[in-house]
Amino acid sequence: GRRGRDFFRRREITIRDQYVNVTDKQVQFVDAQEIARKLIQDFSDREQGIDGVFLIYSEFKSAMQQRIVVDPLLPLSGFKSPDQASRDVQIDYLYEPPPAEILGSLLPHYVETKIYRALLESSASEHGARMVAMDAATNNAKELIDTLTLKMNRVRQTSITKEIIEIVSGAAALTEISG
Q1: What are phi and psi for residue 70, nearest 5 degrees?
Q2: For residue 74, with 0-12 CB atoms within 10 Å meaning exposed, 13-18 middle and 19 or more buried, which class applies?
Q3: I need a surface site. Which of 25, 32, 59, 116 has the fewest CB within 10 A?
Q4: pLDDT tens sequence for the chain (179 residues)
């Protein structure tokens, strides 16, 4: 987003691609697919020199709480190769199509889904933070209205008291003159 881009610009770090204001409108899966396609393409192209891809986003916990998440996206980690998995388990499975082909077809969907989730979480976090800010602004406005109403009533009461004193003083002066 914009803040992430500005963070890296201030530190003079080169930004390869940027997707700003994606969550300003309703988040669409098509946006995630476009970002994922470009990421996978650039990551697969060894000439690009990309060693890893990380998703950094705000995870929605509640309207009052969001958490920054740094999620490694590519390369995949924490998975065992088929050879390693077969050594750990005594059952020998036969994969059709081959594991590389399965990974090739599932990887784009995995990346798209992870990006889409990050976009949705960021959007929910932004809406939650905005809701809390608007609630605080509404409460502050109500307090300000109450304070100003009280001040206005005091000024009005002082003015009325002053007018009554002037009327009573004038009546007393007329009574002294007449009497």
Answers
A1: -115, 110
A2: buried
A3: 25
A4: 788 889 889 999 888 888 888 888 889 999 999 999 999 998 888 887 888 889 989 999 998 899 999 999 998 887 666 566 556 667 777 778 888 898 889 999 999 999 999 999 999 999 999 999 999 999 999 999 999 999 999 999 999 999 999 999 998 888 888 76
d(Cα 30, Cα 144) in Å, to the nearest integer?
A: 45
Q: What radius of gyration, in Å, describes the C-alpha atoms of the chain?
A: 33
Closest CA to 27 of 123, 112, 131: 123
The residues, ordered by sequence, that sit 6+ positions from 88 with a Cβ below 8 Å of its Cβ are 80
User: In DSSP terms, which residues pair with 70 in a beta bridge?
Assistant: 56
Contact 70, 56 (CB under 8 A): yes
Joined tokens for residue 65: 């709480």
Could you please state the CATH topology (level 3) that the domain comprising 2-140 is classified under.
Pyruvate Kinase; Chain: A, domain 1 (3.40.1380)
Residue whose token pair is 């009554």: 164
CB-based contact 54:73 (threshold 8 Å): yes
Burial 22-57 (b: 16+ CB within 10 A, else e): bbeeebeeebbbebbeebbebbeeeeeeeeebebeb
